[in-house]
Design a protein that fits this description.
Layout lengths: L1 E7 L6 E7 L12 E5 L6 E5 L21
Antiparallel strand pairs: 1-2, 3-4
Length: 70
């Protein structure tokens, strides 16, 4: 069974869609489970929450909104 994970690449700001193969669908993952994903937008490795699509170091506010310093 395949699942889709949607996330925003922190380097390019592009929305990325990634499909994962769920080898054991009966296994339920915890809500804080992160999977390594090779990003097609920047070719880097990101750790993405398999349930929410949030990145490992993403702030808890809105995705992609980070404070800027002057």
């Amino acid at each position: 069974m395949q699942r889709q994970i949607l996330f925003r690449c922190p380097r390019t700001g592009m929305n990325v869609q990634h499909r994962t193969d769920d080898e054991r669908p009966e296994r339920s993952e915890p809500a804080d489970s992160y999977v390594p994903v090779r990003c097609p937008a920047c070719m880097s490795l990101h750790f993405v929450n398999s349930t929410t699509g949030k990145l490992l170091n993403e702030p808890s506010g809105q995705p992609g909104s980070r404070p800027r310093s002057a």
